[in-house]
Write a structure and sequence with these properties.
The chain has 2 domains: 9-165, N6 adenine-specific DNA methyltransferase, N-terminal domain (Ferritin, Up-down Bundle), CATH 1.20.1260.30; 170-451, 3-Layer(aba) Sandwich (Rossmann fold), CATH 3.40.50. α1 (9-21) packs parallel to α6 (145-163), α2 (32-60) runs parallel beside α9 (229-241) and α7 (174-184) crosses α8 (201-212). The longest helix has 29 residues, at 32-60. It has 490 residues and is α/β, with parallel strands linked by helices. It has 15 helices and 13 strands. Helices cover 41% and strands 13% of the residues.
């Protein structure tokens, strides 16, 4: 088999984004992904199938099934679809269906894009797309899995940029994801779970962390659930594109119908990474009050905010000995009064290990400040009864309207977390009694006053709120003491 020239990263990215630009003016930018990702995966499957076929013939004189990871029926091959000039969408849809039927692990992976809707995409537009994808061969020899995976992530980021407010449902700032992974340090043989997995970036980050450390990623067991059908399909394609096959990504509502179960209880995992949807109100609060899986460990959240429902689902899904999680949330979950009683019980259970405040704009297309909450079911003895607060508000870089964490930012944060000790103006270890004495308010500025280089007294809004809440709590306690004294006098 003759050698072919590998494609470069920039050539691959230009090729993939070029396909998306063909859709401009025909469909909304937020819908690019439901057409481009399936076509990209379809093309990759067929090119790898042809590559495997050529190797089999060269080595054994014939094409043997054992040489193929997946089966591509002749009538469903890219080349067959390329010959179609009328009802092209129907041909694409039929080919994808036949490939799914021939390969049970791929069932549903191409999603549910409306390929046959000619009002959205005409035959001419689909032919242009197919011809564009046909200009490159996506075989393993030309495009190895690491390169293809990076290009896939590039495309996810580009679609997030182009689609604006719809991006958050499938994309989380990758530098934040890498920080979360570095904090939890997944190991060989562990199970990794993301209950709201989006495009699978957190699962991949865990696998890539093992790879960087020279560990065997094949021993890692990856699980994810995602409510959106197309997004769950994108996550599966993403993992396949990166060369992983031993994973389980399912579509479904994690709160209403958690998929990963063992008998009448939830399946439990070593590591959970999550960025749950923020404050959703369309969820079944009544069912959660008497949850069949015992997820209302600390109480039932208000209807308008399901954040603590996801948090409790995560806690219930952790193994009692090795279980640990990193959850990305807005700061509101740390101090909102309507969730105070649940927060009290969380603190008392001694599973909250660290709370890390990050800077603004790290949620996609949102100026809100983010925080990472780390819980550990079996804390080391030295950390029991304690919570580490890290105020990393200034550990963020912004360039061309994009905020991210540099390696130096991540090293400072992970270093403070692993040291688990006080750092003036940056980190503080607090006992659970101290946290409870603040009415279970976990807002970071209550515990870590950030140093200001110019000695300015100017404070951020969260700091102002925290100070007000602290003074209000102290005033209430003083008033209670005063009334007690007056009662004694009377």
């Amino acid at each position: 088999m003759s050698k072919s020239t590998p494609i470069t990263q920039s050539e691959l990215e230009s090729y993939l984004w070029g396909a998306a630009t063909l859709l401009r003016g025909y469909i909304d930018a937020g819908d690019y992904k439901q057409f481009i990702f399936p076509l990209m995966f379809f093309k990759r499957l067929c090119d790898v199938y042809d590559e495997e076929r050529a190797i089999s013939i060269e080595e054994l004189g014939d094409d043997f099934p054992e040489y193929h990871r997946f089966d591509v029926p002749v009538s469903a091959h890219w080349n067959a679809v390329r010959e179609v000039t009328q009802n092209v969408g129907m041909a694409i849809q039929a080919a994808m269906h036949d490939i799914e039927q021939a390969n049970p692990p791929l069932n549903g992976i191409f999603g549910d894009a409306p390929w046959t809707n000619k009002d959205r995409l005409s035959d001419a537009t689909l032919i242009d797309l197919i011809e564009h994808f046909s200009t490159q061969t996506l075989s393993r020899e030309r495009v190895d899995e690491d390169l293809l995976g990076q290009a896939y992530e590039y495309l996810i980021k580009k679609f997030a940029d182009d689609s604006g407010h719809t991006a958050a449902e499938f994309y989380t700032n990758r530098t934040v994801v890498h920080l979360m992974t570095a904090l939890l340090q997944p190991q060989e043989g562990e199970s990794i779970y993301d209950p709201t997995c989006g495009s699978g970036g957190m699962l991949l980050s865990a696998a890539e962390a093992l790879k960087r450390n020279g560990q065997d990623t094949r021993t890692l067991k990856m699980y994810g659930q995602e409510i959106n059908l197309m997004t769950s399909a994108i996550a599966r394609m993403n993992l396949f594109m990166h060369g992983f096959e031993d994973f389980a990504i399912v579509r479904g509502d994690t709160l209403a119908n958690p998929h990963f179960r063992q008998g009448d209880r939830l399946q439990q995992f070593d590591v959970i990474l999550a960025n749950p949807p923020y404050s959703i109100n369309s969820w079944n609060r009544t069912a959660f009050e008497s949850d069949a899986y015992g997820r209302n460990l600390y109480g039932t959240p208000p209807q308008g905010r399901a954040d603590y429902a996801f948090w409790q689902h995560i806690i219930a899904s952790l193994k009692p000995d090795s279980g640990r999680c990193a959850i990305l949330y807005p700061h509101g979950v740390l101090f909102r009064n309507e969730e105070r009683h649940m927060r009290e019980r969380l603190i008392q259970s001694d599973v909250v290990e660290a709370i890390i405040g990050l800077g603004p704009n790290l949620f996609y297309n949102s100026p809100m400040e983010a925080c990472i909450i780390i819980c550990r079911m079996n804390k080391p003895a030295a950390r029991r009864g304690r919570i580490l607060f890290i105020n990393a508000l200034n550990e963020v870089t912004r360039e061309r309207a994009f905020s991210y964490l540099t390696d130096a930012h991540m090293e400072r944060i992970t270093g403070a977390y692993h040291a688990f000790t006080d750092v003036e103006g940056f980190a503080r270890v607090v006992t659970i009694e101290q946290a409870l004495a603040q009415d279970a308010n976990l807002n970071i500025p209550l515990y870590v006053r950030q140093q200001n280089g110019n000695n300015s007294t100017e404070q951020s809004l969260p700091q102002v709120i925290a100070e007000w809440q602290k003074s209000s709590a102290e005033l209430r306690r003083s008033m209670d003491a005063l009334f007690d004294t007056l009662d004694d006098v009377q």
